[in-house]
Design a protein that fits this description.
The chain has one domain: Severin (3-Layer(aba) Sandwich). The radius of gyration is 14 Å and the shape is globular. The protein is α+β, with helices and mostly antiparallel strands.
Length: 89
């Protein structure tokens, strides 16, 4: 176990993206004291593209993010998958 906890806000925002489908993505960071994973940003559904999401990740800092990725699967219709990003530099 790493000893880093997850804030209640992160858990609540994860539920909003996973179960309620209210968000396109959430972005988290490790607190300055290195003890808690805390929310940095949450973005409502249909307000940003995948390209915009990737472009806003910091060039010189680490982040975690969960992105609700929508895609088409030919005749089978549309799909949605949650993708966890571990952004390290």
């Amino acid at each position: 176990m790493s000893g880093i906890s997850v804030s209640d806000e992160v858990v609540n925002q994860f539920q909003a993206i996973k179960l309620e489908k209210k968000l396109t993505y959430i972005q988290m960071k490790i607190s300055d004291d290195k003890k808690v994973i805390e929310m940095e940003k949450s973005v409502p559904v249909d307000t940003t593209s995948y390209e915009e999401f990737v472009s806003q990740l910091p060039a010189n800092d680490c982040r975690y993010a969960v992105y609700d990725f929508d895609y088409q699967l030919g005749d089978a219709g549309s799909r949605s998958d949650l993708i966890l990003f571990s952004w390290y530099v």
